[in-house]
Specification:
This protein is α+β, with helices and mostly antiparallel strands and 209 residues long. The protein is built from 3 helices and 11 strands; from the N terminus they run ββββββαββββαβα. It has helices spanning 99-111, 172-181, 188-205; strands spanning 21-29, 35-43, 53-62, 70-78, 83-87, 90-92, 117-121, 125-126, 135-145, 162-168, 185-186. The chain is globular and about 60 Å long. The N and C termini lie far apart (51 Å). 20% of the residues are buried.
């Protein structure tokens, strides 16, 4: 029987017990030569690529224009926030994988969509540079159907509970605003992309803002 995900308890975790992340204290020297200290979190899972993770923007299209260009977003409960978060598909890069390989794998695992091309891979980006060393790349992948949209089952790992939703790109910003009204929290990367897309549309439709 399914139930609502929720936090049951919380405690401070000693770094020696942490499996995925650790804390570090950095001693650094600022531009004026003054020595300072900084606390940060660091992933323990970074592989030989030097990249922690990849986020995926899938551009879903029909060869016959049977539907408007779309993307897929996911709903997922995130314990640190104790909220359901609206995100782009994403995941850690395994072993000796490239960002491209990880993006193609994660897209299919989390959404069932199979990419037919890599449109663009971003440079390495910081996720929260004031708090963590974690980094990632954004992969823009193409998914083309010969005609109508076709949905396939995701290949989720045990313990993963993800709801996927296909959204037309021109409606993405408004759809995320609706999620906010319903009490969901939108991931910053997805929010920034949607805001940029909406701003570009507004800029194209008006000589001034």
């Amino acid at each position: 029987m399914s139930s609502q995900a929720k936090i049951i308890s919380s405690r401070e975790l000693p770094a020696s017990e942490a499996r995925w992340v650790t804390l570090k204290e950095l001693e650094w020297q600022d531009q004026e030569g003054k020595q300072r200290r900084w606390e940060c979190a660091e992933r323990k899972t970074r592989g030989s690529s030097g990249i922690d993770a990849v986020a995926i923007l899938a551009v879903i299209q029909s060869a016959k224009n049977a539907f408007a260009p779309s993307t897929v977003i996911i709903e997922q409960y995130r314990p640190p926030m104790d909220k359901y978060i609206i995100e782009l598909p994403a995941g850690l890069i395994d072993g000796k994988e490239t960002a491209e390989q990880a993006a193609i794998r994660e897209l299919e695992e989390e959404t069932g969509f199979k990419a037919d091309r890599v449109i663009e891979i971003s440079p390495i980006t910081a996720t929260d540079p004031g708090m963590t060393t974690a980094n990632m790349k954004l992969a823009i992948l193409g998914v083309t159907f010969p005609d109508a949209l076709e949905l396939s089952d995701a290949k989720l790992d045990e313990g993963e509970h993800i709801v996927k939703r296909v959204v037309e790109l021109h409606n993405l910003y408004d759809e995320l605003q609706e999620y906010d009204k319903k009490g969901f929290v939108v991931d910053a990367r997805l929010s920034h992309f949607a805001s940029g897309l909406n701003f570009a549309k507004r800029l194209g439709n008006s000589a001034s803002l």
